[in-house]
Amino acid sequence: MTIQPEDAPIPVTCFTGFLVSVSQGKTTTILTLIQQLPKDYRVVLLKNEYGDVEVDSLLASQSNISGVSEILNGCLCCTMVGLVENALLEIKQTMKPDRIIIESSGSAFPATLALQIRQLEPQGFKLDGVITVVDSLNFRGYEDNSPSAKLQAKYTDLILLNKHHLATERQLDDLFDSLNDLNDETPKIKIGPAPSNPPQPELVFGLDTKLFELVDGEKKSWAEAEGSGWHGDEVETKNVWRGGVRSKGKGKGKAHDHQHGMSCDACEDATDVETKEKREVVPVSQEELDKELSKLSFEIYRVKGIVRLSSADTTKPYGTHILNWAFGRYELTPIPSLDDDEDLKGASLRLTVMGERGEVAKRARKLAERLGARVD
C-alpha cells in the first residue's frame, strides 16, 4: 500500500456483516488485513458497537493499528449521521491517516453509510469499497428473519466468507445459491480460519466502489431505508453485569440515562459507591461460563464483553478476558492490562447480549440469574 499524498482524499473502506462469528468476524478480518500493511501506513478504525463495553476496540488496541475511534449504540448508517461526519473530520485533523476503516454494527445498512461518505467527498474523503463478511454456517438461518442480512449481501463490492471450513459441501452449495440470488456479480472469497488464509490487502483495498452505478430506482430505495429506521428493530440488546459500580466508568461500564422518574437495579445497587469500589472481585470459573453459554438458544446471536476468570496462579486470583460468543462458539482473549483497571474495580462480568427482538430480555435474565448477575 502506498502512503497518501497530503492533498489526496482519504480512502474509506466500510466493513459490515450481520453479527458474524468469532475467530474470523469483522474485527478479526480487519486486524489481519492491517497486520499485512507496511508499518508506516497509517490506518484508523472507526467502530460502531452494540452495548456499552468497548470490546472490539480493546482487541484492536492490541494490534499495530494507528488509532481506534468508537461510537457505542445507535446506528452509523442512520441515527448518527452527524456523528459520522464529526468523527471522520476529527480523525482526519488529528491522526492524518492514509486510510480509514469503518466497521458498522451488525444490523447496519451499508449503502446509506456509503452515501454519507460520498457527500463528504468535498471535505477530503473517498469511498473505496464496501466489504461484507458472511457467516457461512449461519447466514441461511438468519436471512429469513433479517432484511439487513440480505441487503448487506446485495449492496456490497466484495463478500468474504468465513467459517466455510466448518460447513458441509451441501451447506456451501445452498449458501452460494442464496447469495447468488441476491447478488450474482459480486466476488465471493473464502477466508480463514484465523490466522491462516487471511484476506489479502490488494484484494480488499483499491476496489473503487461500483455501488453508485446502480439504477436510480435502487438509489431511491436506499434513501427510503435510511429514513425508516426499520433495521434498528431487528436486534435487541441487554447488558449483563456482576460486581463493581455499574453506573460509573468510561467505556467499560458507562453511565446511562433513564426516562424521567425511572431508575434501574444497577443504579439502586450503586448507592453505596465507597463500599462497592472496595469490594473484591469474585471471579467466574471457566467451567461455569462454558456451561451457561452452552444453554443459549439460536435466538441469541452474540454475547461479548469482559469476564474475570478464576486463575490457578496463587499470586493473582483472576485474569481479565475479552469474551466473544456467536452461535454456539466462543473465544476468550486474555487482556492482562485490564486486571487492575479502575473502571472495572470490583467487576467480574460486563457482557452485552444481542439477539432477536422480543427474545433477548428473558434469555439474558436467565443467563444473569445463573451467573449471579444483573440485567439492564
Automatic annotation (TrEMBL):
It comes from the Eukaryota. Residues 11-187 form the CobW/HypB/UreG nucleotide-binding domain. InterPro entries: CobW/HypB/UreG_nucleotide-bd (IPR003495), P-loop_NTPase (IPR027417), Zinc-reg_GTPase_activator (IPR051316). One of its GO terms (cellular component) is cytoplasm. Residues 244-263 are annotated as: Disordered. This is CobW/HypB/UreG nucleotide-binding domain-containing protein. The lineage of its organism: Eukaryota, Fungi, Dikarya, Basidiomycota, Agaricomycotina.
